[in-house]
Design brief:
alpha+beta, 17 helices, 20 strands
């Protein structure tokens, strides 16, 4: 790994992930440098001359955008960059908004129409509102307007005034960047702008480097770069997947569909196979490049722990960075002079967080991510093996885990009973799960194997889908039982985790009751 810092390491991975950029400006020029001459004004109608004089008085003199150095800067980084003028009518604006929503990086001039003075605010709002809500992108305001703080405030107020689900929030370490959902919005001045903001003037030839660095900061971290590296590998191996599931197999796919009791399920069957192939591609990429391996960890720790030591636990157990890196290389239980006892593993996150505070919340969060599926916004919620629900009745705050097999959760034509296991406060030597609790973090619970506490609840299936679906209720999803009770959808365990619970249930139910010598039974312990 040749990166000199962890930030460089993250930037290299982000740069490989990024593919496209689009620049929207009403005054592009093909020259290699801006050529704005003092008092010369292009002849226009009287209103335009008046506007130009106003701009000069405030320092916002028109600055034509040099296309060649800007696009070459992106090309040097392996990205395709397009430059388009703003739409002059509704149709043009629609096309522009659609194209901008598909780009990884969007560069907007603040004044999109030199004659009307129309700003980029409306276009920016359309991009963040109409694009896929979880598509990560960087939007840059690149302008000759000197007051970037005022532009930032206008953007923040407009977004916060029209969106209830997201709020614009400032980015740590800078006053001229805000995050809004999956987007980060940054502001820079064109070369030659009369501004007093330090470090905000960026020449066209340097803009691509600056924006890629800004994007990489959005995904700076061991886990974020792991995600980007895995997704990059998927994108670079699309042909491998298409070749695996080629059109020559269409007749076999149709035969498979025709033989199913529920032909519509055939698509999901193939999705399972695609997911398996994707996992193989991502695993190969991670093993080959190790984006979050020990070398990356070394860079991460070197920038985080300047004094070469980490402190674990309430007693501030001190360990040197080389010893901690050895632990991360060989494992906690495989080194001598370990920083903490394996029985005190809950102290590790506290030390790595470098906060001196209990960070068990981080351990719970990761445990929850590793056992629960992430359901995208807008997807339906189906009751099946692994679904966790919570009664909405105020006097019953417990959680229930559905253990009805998936094959018994579909093709339902009439009321059907589902089996649930209670989730109770965590106990040692039991199967546990970390449940995401809305607005209050995560809770570690035990799956109750006490047969008398198990419950059966009857539900009416959806007549078209022939399964039990949750209905949206404000920002939540609820299941309605046949007896009128309602249950809030909490989450869905990953299939392998749910199957491990089913296996434990089967093992418990298959135990043979024996009357044997009590002396022998105690000796066997």
């Amino acid at each position: 790994m040749s990166s000199s810092s962890f930030a460089d390491h993250c930037r290299g991975i982000a740069q490989r992930f990024l593919l496209s950029a689009i620049v929207v400006d009403d005054e592009p020029t093909v020259t290699m440098a801006n050529s704005v001459h003092g008092g010369l004004i292009t002849p226009r109608m009287a209103a335009t001359r008046e506007r130009t004089r106003d701009q000069e008085s405030t320092g916002a003199t028109p600055r034509p955008l040099s296309i060649a150095p800007l696009t070459q800067g992106f090309a040097r980084l392996g990205m395709v960059c397009g430059v388009v003028p703003p739409g002059k009518d509704q149709s043009g604006s629609d096309i522009l908004a659609h194209v901008a929503a598909r780009a990884d990086i969007v560069v907007l001039d603040w004044k999109l129409d030199a004659e009307s003075g129309e700003s980029a605010l409306a276009l920016l709002e359309r991009i963040v509102r109409e694009a896929a809500p979880f598509r990560i992108r960087l939007i840059a305001i690149y302008t000759a307007e000197p007051d970037l703080q005022q532009i930032r405030d206008k953007i923040r107020d407009q977004l916060n005034g029209t969106h209830e689900s997201h709020q614009a929030r400032p980015v740590n370490g800078t006053s001229l960047a805000i995050d809004f959902g999956a987007c980060r919005i940054v502001m820079y001045n064109k070369n030659g702008a009369q501004t007093e903001a330090p470090g905000c003037v960026v020449a066209e030839e340097d803009l691509a480097d600056r924006l890629v660095a800004d994007f990489s900061q959005m995904a700076e971290g061991l886990l974020p770069v792991l995600v980007l590296a895995a997704l990059t590998a998927v994108r670079e191996n699309v042909y491998q997947l298409l070749n695996c599931f080629g059109h020559q197999l269409d007749p076999a796919f149709l035969a498979h569909r025709a033989c199913l009791d529920q032909p519509a399920e055939s698509e999901l069957h193939i999705v399972e196979q695609i997911a398996s192939e994707l996992q193989g591609i991502m695993e190969d990429a991670i093993v080959s490049n190790s984006p979050a391996g020990i070398q990356a960890i070394n860079l991460w720790a070197d920038g985080r722990f300047k004094n070469d030591e980490l402190r674990f636990g309430a007693n501030n157990i001190v360990s040197t960075l080389p010893r901690v890196l050895e632990m991360l290389t060989k494992g906690l239980e495989n080194i001598n002079g370990r920083p903490v006892s394996p029985k005190k593993h809950n102290l590790l996150s506290r030390g790595f967080a470098d906060s001196g505070e209990d960070r068990t919340d981080l351990d719970r969060h990761l445990a929850s991510l590793m056992s629960f599926r992430q359901i995208v916004e807008g997807a339906s919620r189906q009751l099946s093996m692994g679904t966790v629900i919570q009664p909405t009745a105020t006097n019953d705050m417990g959680f229930l885990l559905c253990v009805t097999p998936k094959c018994d959760s579909v093709r339902l034509k009439e009321k059907s009973s589902f089996l649930f296991l209670p989730l109770v406060p965590a106990k040692k030597r039991t199967t546990q799960v970390v449940v995401p609790i809305r607005d209050s973090g995560h809770r570690r619970l035990t799956i109750s194997m006490n047969l008398p506490s198990w419950q059966q609840v009857c539900f009416e299936p959806d007549p078209e889908r022939e399964c039990v679906l949750a209905y949206p209720n404000d920002s939540e999803f609820h299941f309605r039982a046949a007896d009128g009770r309602t249950f809030r959808w909490v989450g869905e365990l990953k299939s392998e985790f749910a199957q491990s619970v089913a296996q434990e249930i089967a093992g418990r139910m298959s135990r043979v009751a024996l009357n044997k010598s009590e002396w022998l039974r105690r000796s066997e312990r």
